Amino acid sequence: MPSRSGGGAARRSFDAVRGVFTGETPLPAPTLRWGLLLVATGAVIAALVTLFVTGFDNNKIEAHSPASAGEPVVDKEFGTAVKGDCLSWSKPDHSDLVKVRCESKHMFEVAADIDMSKYPGKEFGPGSRFPDSLRLTELKEEHCVPAVQQYMGGKFDPRGRYIVGLMYPSPDGWQHGDRTLRCGLQYAASAGTPPSTGSAAEHDQSKVYGPGVCLGINQNLPTDPVDCSQVHAVEIVSTIDLGQRFQGGPPAKEEQDRFVEEECARTSAEYLGGPDVVRNKTLTLFFDFLDARSWLAGSRKLDCMVGKGADREGFAPITGSARGDILINGQAPQPPPNTGRSTPTPLPGAAPLPPQPR
């Protein structure tokens, strides 16, 4: 499969996918593999936001800049944020950044504030050079990943709804002596910073969207939620809670498959208005599975979704909700001929690619 930006991260999630086909004739294995790209979305997003530091990115946002007599301290709210604080903003330049209660909508939850000036060496000393994007990425991995793990009590789901974020001083703040990094959590997205509500430490971290949500499409891959009237890759038909079926430790993949397969088939028929809708609209029903890391972090939910594999790789663009009329690649789908035979039991997807260490 050709490589793409973020492809390495995406491939690390390929082992987590299943597809359920409700057509009369199972599609060939190569088509089944298009489903492998779906739940890799979270990993792709994580790759895309490697330097997406709380929406600050490379914008020149003033951080807590120590000021001389008579000069104001710029962005005091950011400069005084500590562990457990939640931050929000609405302006594109983030100039209205404020601390808010975590029960309210917010963009970022601070897991740790780290004063790098206390570290030995000259890298963060007075007059030191502002770190480039590569070094900022390294600092996020070195300091923020373990800080978030500690903040979450060791229960952070790397495939869940949150990603590790980094807030750092602007170049001007750095020049004035600010060396404080703020590590934390934010919703995963391929663009922008979606607001979250409530503390991440108290939430089920499952990466689910809920019935009726459509995920946009970019380069044949699912992106962020969009209105289903817009072009999209997949539509969520239901959310399955595995906690209602499994207790204790992580259930085996095969046991999850059997349960989720049945639930996705049942709930998709309820959502779409009949058991033959998926087949008649030439769609495919996809589902994921929860690996041990996600399960031990407390995640219990999975989305069932419908989409259409593209000819080459990824997903075909769909317009309209699957509950009504849709267009696939701009054309109305043609139902396959009805031979009078009953629809067989849904089949699991193709064998996943070998798991790779994250």
From TrEMBL:
The keyword Ribonucleoprotein does not apply. Residues 83-304 form the Septum formation-related domain. Residues 323-358 are annotated as: Disordered. Keywords: Membrane, Transmembrane, Transmembrane helix. Residues 345-358 have a biased composition (Pro residues). It comes from the Bacteria. The chain crosses the membrane at residues 34-56. InterPro entries: Septum_form (IPR026004). This is Septum formation-related domain-containing protein.
